[in-house]
């Protein structure tokens, strides 16, 4: 069973060349938004896989920021600009820190998990805001990416970076989907339902949370690197709680039903934001908040459940 | 010596301000089990409405002394209007849901409130320095302090005392303690739990708005102050133990002095020292420094 591709994985595999092709067809500004939202979409994915286990991380910006800053510092201090090395830096930094912090966080659930993850991300925020070496609240710029020694310029550089953003994102989404379908992934859902029963079945809930936490951090770190490269800039706002709140928002809105949902959700949100900010800049957050309330009340499993429900309805003749 | 005095006075000032800004949060959590992110929004509403009201009033050229009445009235107005609207309009449909879900609901409300303040008062900054300026300064060991700041310490003590007295020495307060202990039993005893929830929420919102209202004369009121205060208030109530008034006092003193220490000894640590204290406390005593162990209910 496991070696077979499920529907989502097929969609991802077919989607990758289409996504890349779109980068050459669509107008540049849309491509920019796609690229940026792929980066943040990965972080939303990280929040989403934790939400599957009933854990709401109000500090996922921490790893988003660590990824971005790790890549930025590697570029600034070590002169590294190779995208593979930068991605590795971001991944290693976020996974290492998550592994250490995981020993702490795995003991907590519900609001305490949310609060502790928030506190950790705010520590970094406080640190980075005051660290003049790293530009304090202004942050600093990243070098433009190179690819195994190839340093493209102008339009080629843009396209190359776009392709280099699409591929890791799709790979991450693919692997995460595998993870969620694996026994370890299903343990996460059991965790949400009843942790004590899970322990009776002979599995360690702590270990499951720890693994999930580290995976989520790794994905978010990669997202941070890609986002930072797309913008060419990092600043402490990446780890402010309001940023983390947006990731939570995306996961709520799109739901935890499918890996693809947060990626789409981020993109749609990004586009809506562009228009909303232009039309009425002071009601943008109000729209977000209202949407979120409506989703929580009427679509507790997110927008994706609309698609799912249709499928279910077809299969079982109307019964949920 | 001079630094020690400065740290003590500043620490006390910070602590009083933090207590005023976070006691409403802990009250609402204690009674309703809602970790209210929207508290930051109420704080901002309070700050804006008091700054706005003070501005309108001082334009008339009347005596400044009356502004000290305007500040609490502005907070009360916010508390009653926003509190009732949100509790009756949104929250009451959500009672009994997961605590985490309530966090998300209040986060959504927080986002909405952010824009409500922008729509009412615009995105510019507002200044209402008169009440703070009017009282002048006092010298403590040669360091000048605004008397207004010291008055806030007094106000914090009064608010804390009134809350303690109200909870422990009045009939309603004792009934509220029963509600906190066990909602179902108290409902069975004939206590109107819904009414208690509504009133508690309004009081909590008023306190949050009061925190903002008394701060307004000392700062320039700008968008985003709500997002700043809420994490600070989280730190305060987590350290002392969420849901207890005494805990908020202890947390406020802890955070207040941590901040004063870092401001005077190592300024770059100012921001993260607070969150560091919060994370350390959460890591070792997640239910607060002075909480008792609670049995797990399966």
From TrEMBL, chain A:
InterPro entries: ABC_transp_permease, LivM-like
Highest rank taxon of the organism: Bacteria
Cellular component GO terms, alphabetical: plasma membrane
Keywords from the named record: Cell membrane, Membrane, Transmembrane, Transmembrane helix
Claim: Transmembrane helix is one of the keywords in the record: yes
Main location: membrane
Transmembrane segment boundaries: 12-31, 51-71, 83-105, 111-128, 160-180, 213-234, 246-272, 284-304
GO MF annotations, alphabetized: branched-chain amino acid transmembrane transporter activity
Membrane topology according to the record: Multi-pass membrane protein
Compartmental location: Cell inner membrane
Record CDD domains: TM_PBP1_LivM_like
Keyword Magnesium attached: no
Protein known as: Branched-chain amino acid ABC transporter permease
UniProtKB/TrEMBL annotation, chain B:
Membrane association type: Multi-pass membrane protein
Main localization of the protein described in the UniProt heading: membrane
CDD domains: TM_PBP1_LivH_like
GO molecular function: transmembrane transporter activity
Gene Ontology biological process terms in this record: amino acid transport
Protein's UniProt keywords contain Cell membrane: yes
Domain of life: Bacteria
Entries under Pfam families matching the protein: BPD_transp_2
Protein's recorded name: Branched-chain amino acid ABC transporter permease
Lineage: Bacteria, Pseudomonadati, Pseudomonadota, Gammaproteobacteria, Thiotrichales
């Amino acid at each position: 069973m496991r070696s077979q591709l499920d529907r989502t994985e097929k969609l991802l595999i077919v989607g990758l060349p289409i996504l890349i092709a779109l980068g050459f067809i669509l107008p540049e500004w849309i491509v920019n938004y796609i690229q940026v939202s792929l980066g943040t979409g990965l972080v939303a994915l990280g929040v989403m896989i934790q939400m599957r286990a009933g854990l709401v991380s109000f500090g996922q910006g921490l790893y988003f920021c660590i990824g971005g800053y790790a890549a930025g510092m590697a570029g600034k201090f070590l002169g590294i600009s190779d995208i593979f090395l930068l991605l590795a830096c971001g991944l290693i930094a976020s996974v290492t820190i998550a592994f250490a912090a995981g020993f702490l966080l795995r003991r907590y659930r519900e609001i305490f998990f949310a609060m502790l993850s928030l506190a950790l991300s705010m520590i970094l925020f406080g640190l980075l805001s005051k660290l003049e070496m790293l530009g304090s609240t202004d942050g600093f710029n990243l070098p433009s990416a190179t690819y195994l020694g190839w340093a493209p310029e102008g339009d080629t550089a843009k396209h190359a970076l776009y392709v280099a953003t699409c591929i890791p994102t799709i790979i991450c989404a693919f692997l995460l989907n595998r993870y969620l379908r694996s026994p370890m992934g299903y343990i996460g859902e059991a965790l949400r339902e009843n942790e004590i029963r899970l322990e009776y079945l002979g599995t360690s809930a702590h270990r499951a949370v720890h693994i999930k936490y580290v995976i989520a951090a790794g994905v978010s770190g990669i997202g941070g690197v890609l986002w930072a490269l797309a913008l060419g800039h990092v600043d402490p706002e990446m780890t402010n709680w309001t940023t983390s709140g947006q990731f939570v928002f995306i996961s709520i809105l799109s739901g935890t039903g499918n890996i693809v949902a947060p990626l789409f959700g981020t993109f749609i949100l990004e586009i809506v934001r562009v228009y909303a900010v232009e039309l009425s800049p002071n009601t943008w957050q109000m729209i977000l908040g209202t949407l979120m309330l409506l989703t929580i009340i009427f679509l507790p499993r997110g927008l994706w459940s609309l698609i799912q429900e249709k499928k279910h309805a077809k299969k079982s003749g109307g019964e949920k | 010596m001079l630094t020690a005095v400065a740290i003590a006075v500043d620490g006390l000032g910070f602590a009083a301000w933090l207590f005023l800004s976070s006691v409403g949060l802990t009250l609402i959590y204690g009674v309703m089990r809602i970790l209210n992110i929207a508290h930051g929004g109420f704080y901002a509403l309070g700050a804006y409405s008091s700054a706005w009201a003070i501005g309108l009033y001082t334009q008339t050229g009347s005596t400044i002394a009356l502004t000290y009445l305007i500040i609490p009235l502005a907070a009360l107005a916010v508390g009653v209007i926003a509190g009732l609207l949100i509790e009756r309009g949104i929250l009451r449909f959500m009672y009994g849901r997961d605590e985490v879900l309530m966090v998300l609901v209040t986060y959504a409300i927080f986002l909405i409130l952010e824009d409500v303040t922008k729509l009412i008062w615009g995105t510019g900054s507002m200044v209402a320095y008169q009440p703070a300026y009017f009282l002048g300064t006092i010298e403590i060991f040669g360091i000048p302090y605004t008397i207004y700041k010291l008055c806030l310490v007094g106000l914090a003590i009064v608010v804390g005392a009134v809350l303690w007295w109200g909870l422990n020495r009045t009939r309603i307060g004792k009934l509220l303690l029963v509600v906190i202990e066990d909602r179902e039993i108290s409902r069975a005893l004939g206590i109107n739990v819904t009414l208690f929830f509504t009133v508690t929420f309004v009081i909590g919102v008023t306190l949050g708005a009061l925190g903002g209202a008394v701060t307004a004369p000392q700062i320039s009121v700008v968008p985003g102050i709500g997002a700043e205060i809420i994490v600070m208030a989280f730190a305060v109530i987590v350290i002392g133990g969420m849901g207890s008034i005494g805990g908020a006092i202890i947390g406020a003193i802890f955070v207040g002095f941590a901040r004063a220490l870092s401001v005077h000894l190592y300024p770059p640590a100012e921001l993260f020292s607070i969150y560091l204290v919060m994370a350390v406390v959460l890591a070792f005593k997640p239910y607060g420094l002075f909480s008792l162990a609670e049995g797990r209910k399966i």
